[in-house]
Inverse folding.
């Protein structure tokens, strides 16, 4: 298939990991700054993908607490006074700038020197918003690049953790940050980082192999969370809504999806576990398509198809294989 994907580097995209880490302020050489019980480094993580990194890499040397409760849509998070105070007492804050405005503001006002912005540890891109991909070729600028359609200032896509390769890049940066914050346990952080990166490399290989032989490249999902995953494995994401999972699609967008579903032989409309599935199910009913879950892994809850990041991503792979008729 002639797949055309939209990848426009964001103007504010972060540089190399080394440059990002250079902005971190070191804690004391003993690692006691922000120490919790038993001298462990206290890490406050903004939402589940950041918690997972901190726990897997930090191991027994950190105490990790999350700002986003299980089952809560992270985009809509509002911080309580207690959570704001919790940020100010942290030895390290791990967050992803651009995903949760309330967290971005609180981190800026926290006074904590040792903050790690995961968005600065890899390259962010603009995967568009509601308009999705162009299958007719009419909106492409000369030279084969797709025109912006007035979206030059669209925000960068923050969903980097859904690409195992990018998530591994972030993991490496978090590992180095922990080594700097708590040098007494640097060797353990390094080993844990290597182990996690190895697991993510294996996940990447399973996605690559599992999606090679497929009948279609296109999948429809509730909101535009899977741009990085789609680009990594040569797929076309068609989102009902944009980067905001609660946004309502325009009538024109719904009509366009009807045409795309027929043209690209789409079989399935995916919905999520933390956002409303009403629009996705309505579209599936109107088009005669099946529904299934494609989880953005923004949190682990009772409806999650797995107990942690890797298990949920493996469920996503299985569901994509079925939808794309991969063999």
């Amino acid at each position: 298939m002639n797949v055309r994907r939209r990848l426009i580097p964001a103007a504010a995209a972060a540089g190399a990991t080394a440059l990002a880490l250079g902005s971190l302020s070191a804690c004391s050489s003993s690692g006691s700054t922000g120490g919790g019980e038993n001298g462990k480094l206290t890490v406050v993580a903004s939402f589940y993908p950041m918690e997972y990194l901190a726990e897997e890499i930090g191991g027994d040397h950190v105490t990790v607490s999350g700002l986003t409760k299980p089952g809560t849509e992270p985009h809509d998070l509002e911080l309580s006074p207690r959570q704001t105070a919790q940020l100010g007492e942290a030895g390290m804050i791990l967050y992803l700038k651009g995903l949760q405005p309330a967290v971005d503001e609180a981190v800026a006002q926290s006074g904590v020197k040792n903050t790690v912005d995961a968005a600065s540890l890899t390259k962010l891109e603009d995967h568009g918003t509601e308009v999705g991909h162009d299958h007719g070729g009419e909106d492409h600028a000369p030279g084969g690049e797709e025109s912006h359609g007035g979206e030059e200032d669209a925000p960068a896509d923050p969903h980097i953790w859904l690409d195992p390769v990018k998530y591994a890049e972030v993991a490496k940066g978090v590992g180095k940050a922990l080594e700097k914050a708590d040098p007494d346990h640097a060797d353990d952080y390094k080993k844990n980082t290597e182990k996690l990166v190895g697991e993510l490399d294996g996940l990447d290989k399973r996605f690559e192999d599992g999606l090679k032989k497929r009948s279609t490249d296109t999948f429809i999902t509730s909101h535009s969370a899977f741009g990085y995953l789609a680009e990594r494995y040569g797929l076309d994401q068609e989102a009902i809504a944009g980067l905001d999972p609660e946004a309502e699609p325009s009538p024109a967008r719904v009509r366009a999806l009807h045409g795309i579903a027929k043209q690209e032989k789409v079989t399935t409309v995916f919905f999520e576990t933390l956002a409303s599935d009403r629009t996705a199910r309505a579209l599936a009913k109107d088009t005669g398509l099946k529904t299934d879950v494609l989880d953005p892994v923004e949190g682990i809850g009772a409806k999650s198809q797995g107990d942690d990041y890797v298990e949920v991503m493996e469920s996503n792979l299985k569901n994509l294989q079925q939808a794309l008729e991969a063999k």
User: Anything to note?
Assistant: The chain has two domains: 16-127+158-203, 208-323. Residues 1-33, 129-152 have pLDDT under 50 and may be disordered.
